[in-house]
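Internal ticket #5521
Category: modeling
Description: The requester needs a full-assembly model to guide mutagenesis choices. All entity lines are attached below as received. Residue total reported by intake: 678.
Assigned to: D.W.
Attached entities:
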Amino acid sequence: MKRYLCSIIIGMVVILSIGTYYVKVASSASSLPKYTFKTLEGSDKELDPVIINATLQNGGAFYEPLTIESNTTTYASERSYLENLTGRQDHLIERLVKEHRSFMRGKDSISSLYEDDDFLAYAWVNSEYTKSGNMEAKFDIGLLEKKDEEETSFQIELPNQERIMNIDVRDVQLVHSKIQVLTMIDVNSNNEKQTKEVHLYTIDVANKKVLSDKTLVSETFTDPNQVDFEMPIDVAPSQPNSMVFISVNKGVNHEDGFKEKLKESKLLSYNYETEKLETVKKGPLSLDVARSGYADGKNLYAVEMKSGKYRIKTFDLSSQTLTSDTELDIAANKEEQYTAAFKNGRVYFLLNGMNQEGLFTYQPAKLLIADIKTGKTLYKGETVINKKNSKSFELYIEDLEIK
Amino acid sequence: MMRYIKLVNFEINRFSKIYLSLLLITLVSQFAGVIIVTKSLLNDARDIMKEERLSEAAYITNYGGIDFNHIANSLLFVGPIALSAVALIFYIFLIWYRDWFGKNTFIYRLLILPTSRLSIYLSKATSIFLMVLGLIAFQIIILPMENALFNSNVPEALLSEMSISTITIANPILSLIIPSTFTQFLISYGIGLMIMSILFTAIMFERSFRIKGIIMGLLYCGIAAVLFLAPVLMEIGNFYFYPNELFGMMLAIGIILTGLSVWLGAWLLKNRVTV
């Protein structure tokens, strides 16, 4: 026995120490605080489609991603290795992968996808920079006919690519069986002038051809002037939408930061069907509120804070009028950040609970679910934790998804 | 079986002096690191507080607390880990070649032993792997002690305490040798085993065919690397795999490669290696 002492010691130490370490790691995950929403008003059935992605933090020393789905907290460390390998996915992409696994290979950008009852379309720009610094870009186009799973995929040269420095696909639609690709472009320039453009490409899938390249907006400016394009958040990015919004923000870069010239900024709407580009009238909605809103192709929803209350304004796109303006039954606080989502005729409104300075005060996050049209509260609740000693943890909410 | 265990024990005993020195160097250097680096961190903090006339609380809000990360990034802490890693990688080769080029060409006796040559091959592999794990286990044991020493040396007002698992996640080298989950641990050290078996086979090629064998060994390593990375290489060629498919393929290829390497290495040792 004595001759084996060295090996026996090493063997024992290895098993005991590594074993204990990983048992402890596993058990510490299950001792993390669990968050649930305590119902204050309404029915907790409303919580079923709500997915909240967040991280639990404690100073800089602790960082743990978690998901609260249908009122159940799951930490990333509690998931299996394979689940974490795939990572957090938009539930829409997850469903599409399940239904059309082969078509969805390599397609993970939600704004590049379009889905209706019969078709699933995809458009992406694959760009590479050559050694001389030029960009070489190709459209990656895919169209799936759902009924017989017939797939058309091809690559096609991006027109006029020599003048483009950078291109970003922002929306894809299928209109009269042609794929429409809305892109934002930075144009190459060899002087001080900078140009940014919004282009709409029309692609004929049957003949594998780019039918047209239309410049919707083009803005040229020189430093310190600055122009940026933005789009209000698309509530249903892959669904058929006949209308999109593009906000053009103009301003000047001063030494102490960016100053916007609100009078020159504007909000544009483009209709894929009528091919009309219009400026949204500044009447019923202030520009600031409108462009930080949420669009679903029929309406633009905007959140406004007024005299201590949050208000939801619904702007009808076809008639360009406000159709509803309701108050939410939740106290507004400038220090708190909100996250909103619009779906199923409801507004989901989540107040962070954390103030922006990140002070170590624990406040529960509040969730309100209300009818968009009437503003009637359907659910109201706030987070509670199942452990008393977890008050030093902070819950950072990253996003709110509705199934 | 008994012969195999005897051989493993024999190999470990042969390396025990160097191994114990590695453990000792790690112990001394890391604890010295904790004490020395903590002192210099505290001095720096006090200097800044004096110069800018900050209170401890103000210092914390401006510069953040002092945490174990500073220690874990210092040379005295990381150095012995790197030294041990290099020593064991080097020993992958030495464990074979010392038998040929040592004082009394030990390989004669080893190959004459009435045991299957596979168990010679496996015993060498096992002892190296066990010694690697031993070093990791040792680090896992002394890390909480170092952390406790650090926590007691830093005044509470300046300290930002870290748990052991956070320390291992935050430091790139520690997170490499002590993966954050058990699955990741199995995967990392599984890959380590695979690489070791491939290197062993390359050594067997060299011992079998000498100069020609070096080329064959290098070729074998190259082919193994390309095979293992084939799914990833296909992705560069614009074919997309889902993450779980990629994982499944690499797992399968890894197991096959390890099995093949062990079989080929043992076969060469049995049939081609001459003394």
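Resolution: model delivered.
Comment from assignee: Chain B touches chain A through 38 residues (CB under 8 Å).
Ticket closed.
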